Every structure is written in structure tokens, then in C-alpha cells.
Amino acid sequence: xxxxxxxxxxxxxxxxDIRGIYPIEIDSDTAYTIGRGFGSYIRSIGKTQAVIxxxxxxxxxxxxxxxxxxIMESGIDVISxxxxxxxxxxYACIKLKVYSGVMVTASHNPKDDNGFKFAFDESxxxxxxxxxxxxxxxxxxxxxxxxxxxxSYNIEPDxxxxxxxxxxxxxxxxxxxxxxxxxxxxxxxxxIHEMFPLDIEFINNDSDGTFPNHHPDPCVEKNLDQLKKxxxxxxxxxxxxxxxxxxxxxxxxxxxxxxxxxxxxxIVIRDIINKVANKKFLYDVKxxxxxxxxxxxxxxxxxxxRTGNSYTKAKVREDDLPFGGELSGHVYFRDRWxxxxxxxxxxxxxxxxxxxxxxxxxxxxEGINEYYSTEELKFTSPDxxxxxxxxxxxxxxxxxxxxxxxxxxxxxxxxxxxxxxxxSNTGPNITARFEASTNERLEELQNEFISKIExxxx
Length: 458
Known about the structure:
Layout: E1 18-21, H1 28-44, E2 49-54, H2 60-72, E3 77-83, H3 86-96, E4 101-104, E5 113-119, H4 129-140, E6 150-152, H5 156-164, E7 175-179, H6 189-193, E8 199-202, H7 225-234, E9 238-242, E10 249-253, E11 258-259, H8 261-272, E12 280-284, H9 289-297, E13 301-305, H10 309-318, E14 323-325, E15 331-333, H11 343-355, H12 361-364, E16 372-373, E17 377-380, H13 383-399, E18 403-405, E19 410-414, E20 417-423, E21 429-436, H14 439-456
Parallel strand pairs: 2-3, 2-4, 3-6, 7-8, 7-9, 12-13, 12-14
Antiparallel strand pairs: 1-5, 4-5, 9-10, 10-11, 14-15, 16-21, 17-21, 18-19, 19-20, 20-21
Helix pairs in contact: 1-2, 8-9, 13-14
């Protein structure tokens, strides 16, 4: 039925996962081949079982079936979750104590994309060199054969119970508008929210893998236009949005203002810093200096780290941090949650904070140091070009005598701002973000580095 794909597209093996366009770059044979490679590899390191799930994209069920076949033909027993959010998949691995697994998803990518997030063992999602090594393993084609079994497992009751026992809402009944963006979270969001003393209105709450209403990325402000309008129309306290597979979150305030994740993180850290023993918090290189300033003001310690949820989640766990996150909307609570990223959970933590105060979101953000910043800007650049461009930006910074970091791409630091240029690990793009103490300086930084990117990206 399926064939080993010797000519598998190497460019789909990216920094944090496997991701590409269906069916041009990823098809059933690709999924089967990845399954054969995954099953063989985990069997070679002594594993006997794997947990698998898929999101609601139109191609996901087909790829899931092919993947499952490949894994079982390698002699691995499959625990099949079916249609689930990525956080539900993560919790199933924790609950079942089976840490080898694959989630079929392209997260927040366009509807025609699909892919695989995967973990070999307890160390978490594969990333960086691990993914390239896995590609090399697949290309060798030296697979183990066997006949694994399939067992279906419904994680939903356990997942709902995890939420039910986690919150302590106050007397204020918060009104929120929630936009799952027709993503996979729509299969469970009603059941979760109805357990709590909240007034909730939903938009785009039908699971539809064509994402008919807007692109399923809640950290891009233009995707939240419907949410903004609805929040203002119904007089809600806040608006929450989730991405395609449910592991990321976006926010708007009662007056429809977009709140980036780093500002949400300030609200959370202000809330928990006196409740946790370890006062170290992680953020990625894209986050505003407002966040690091605030952690310092509160007497905590900030840890600046590279972008990518496979990296940031692992670092939060390894350093035993109570909380961390990144600008893209992935956040990790470990104060009273198992540490995996869930947009639903992150949103409910915000609603819980609001329920225990009479302040608005805007008031909860008072007193922070304000800077002028851009959103994350994208410049199309082929996968075989983008890393070279970023390297040359580093050479330029060195020639100019600038101070810069190389944690992830090139982050050039000035007394009055910064410029970040990095190669995207999820698509053929170079991304850039800028921040400064004045609008004028922000413009200067943008002009200098964008012109350099455009000059080099040819």
C-alpha cells in the first residue's frame, strides 16, 4: 500500500520538527517512511510503544494512517489518540508514561501545510541536530521490521480533569470572547470553559481544517481583527485566541488592543513571583526589554534563550523554572501544571488572575518600561540561502564594531534598542524584529538592517 520514499524532501526536516506543503513535499509515502524510520529508531533504543495523534487539517487523517502503518511495521505498538490538540497529545504521553510519540500537525502554518512533531524519549520534542540525524537515519533505509499492535486511547476525560482541579477563581465573573480560529482546540474548548464561573462567547469555534475565517496564528495581530470587534461589541474584559493545534495563545484587551505574549508574561510573573521559590524566568530573544526590565525590578532573574518551543520548553524543564515562554505564544507553567504548552491553560490562567482582581488588563500592565517595537517581520528567503544571509548580517555587525548576541541568529544590542535577524526554522523566511526607546530610533534601526537584509537576500 505504501512505499519507502528514497527521494524524501530534505528541506522538510526543520529546526523544531518536520513540516512542508501537502501533497507536494509531504504525502502518504513520506508519512509512512517517517513512521518506519521513527519506529525502527525507537525500537533500537529499547522502546516498545509510541503515542500518536493528529490535528484537524484536511490531510492529517491520511498522513496519520500512513505514519501509524510505518510505525507498526517496525514492530512498535501504537497508542492511537486520533483527533487531539497537541497539548492533549503531550498530556497523554505524561499520563501513560510513554514518552516516544508523534503528533501530526503543522501548528500555525497555512492550511495546505502539514508535518510531524516527534519525541524519541523523555527528553522531549526532537530539535536541531537530532532532526538532521534522524533524516540521515531515514535516508539509510536500514529499518527494523515487525508487527506492532494498535490500541485506541481517549485522553479527553483525563485532560478535562487536569483542568478541573487546577484553578482557583475569585469572586469576579470575567467576561471573555474566545476564538479557536477553527483549529483543533474547537473540539474541547466548550467542555473546558463550562466548568468555571466565567461568561464566555465563542467565535470561529467549529473545527474546520480549511481555517475559513483567518490564518490560525494568534500572535499575528491582523488575524485577531474579528476577535477585537467582538470583544468591543459585547463589552468583554478580554479576548483570547488559539492556534491551529492549540499550543499557542494570543490576547486582546477590552478595548481591542493586541497584547503581545511578552506583556502577558509580565502579568503572570507579577502574579506568581512571590508564590514560587525559584525566581528565575525564561524568555526568548524576540521578547521586549520591558520583560527583562520587569523581572529585574521584581527581584527575579531573567534567562534569555533561543527561539523555538522544542528548545524553550526543554530549557524550562532542565533548569526547573516555574515559568517561561516566547513571543510566538508558547508559554510553560511549572508552578502547578506539568510544564507543557497549552493555549487553553495559558488563557485560563489569565482569566483566573482577572477574577481575583478588580483591575483591567491595561491596569495590570501599568508601571512597565515602555519601548517602541515592530512585530516580527518576514522576508521570503529559500532554505538554502537564509542561513548565509544571517551569517553575513553577523559579519556586518562585527565590521561595524557593534555588540551582538548569537544565541539565535544575530541580535545586535545598542544602548537605546536592538535589532534581531534570524533564519526561520519553520519556513523559507528570514525574520527580523526591532525595538528602541524612541520611534525615531526604531525607524533608524529598521532602515539600516532591512536594507542590509534586502541587499544580501538576492
